[in-house]
Amino acid sequence: MSEIKIIRAGVDDLKYAEGISKLIDEAAKSKNSGLAHRTPEYICEKIKEGKAVIAFVDNEIAGFCYIATWQNNTFISHSGLIVNPKFRGMGLAKAIKKECFNLSQDKYPNAKIFGLTTSLAVMKINTALGYEPVTFSELTTDEEFWKGCETCANFDILQRTKRFNCLCTGMLWSKK
Description:
Layout lengths: L3 E5 L8 H15 L8 H9 L3 E6 L2 E11 L4 E9 L8 H16 L4 E6 L2 H10 L2 E3 L8 H5 L7 H6 L8 E5 L3
Parallel strand pairs: 4-5
Antiparallel strand pairs: 1-2, 2-3, 3-4, 5-7, 6-7
């Protein structure tokens, strides 16, 4: 039986940044998805800030997700959710996302948590956590967030529609 560990990443985990960046790129290509490129340096930044979750199976990187804050910490996004293809079908995406959700609530208890996704599996996970689909106008207006979409294969759609819609679905969780 495989040993599964899901942790809140710390400085000891910086050594995994390059591998995580490659996993994100490979997932984006293989699924032809809307995953945006994230450099190893960017991933290191998230790890140093205490805003990343890494999953391991038998001490091998199995998955990743990170949080980013927007508009003076009033909005939190979850991004870069990936599971190594070798470890899919084990429920890791749901477990990683849940830990990322808990991390967000621990660090920013009053923030609205959101994400953009083209993945039906992620939509189902988000729905189980209490997210609801929303129009992009309900999400952050922070230009830096939307700048992150520039490396996505679908960015031209977002530009053409003046950020009204894209292939991604916006999902929002807010404290009720």
